[in-house]
Amino acid sequence: MTDILNLDALTISEEVKSMRKDNLTSNKMSVNDKLLIHICYLLTSRFEEVQDLVLRIVCAFIAKVGSALKQK
What is the Cα Rg of the chain in Å? Predict the structure, then answer.
């Protein structure tokens, strides 16, 4: 789960490509895989006009995940 906190767009993009390739054989995606795909999608140029909002969403997500991980 800590890999999700790395928000380098290229890393996420490569990770998504890898997951899609792996999931063609298994036909099942994990929750983590779906989450990474959605984060990658939010970081695309499609949302460039509202990037400040996207980054706020991502920041809030990271804060929530971080606090949840600290509690464990």
Answer: 13
pLDDT tens digit sequence for 7-20:
555 666 677 777 77
User: Contact at 8 Å (CB) between 23 and 33?
Assistant: yes
The whole-angstrom distance between residue 48's C-alpha and the CA centroid of its chain comes to 17
Sequence-separated (6 or more) residues with CB below 8 Å from residue 58:
7, 39, 42, 43
Query: Does the pTM of the predicted model rise above 0.85?
Result: no
Tell me the domain boundaries of the chain. 2-71
Report helix, strand or coil for 2: helix
How far is it, in rounded angstroms, from Cα 36 to Cα 13?
9
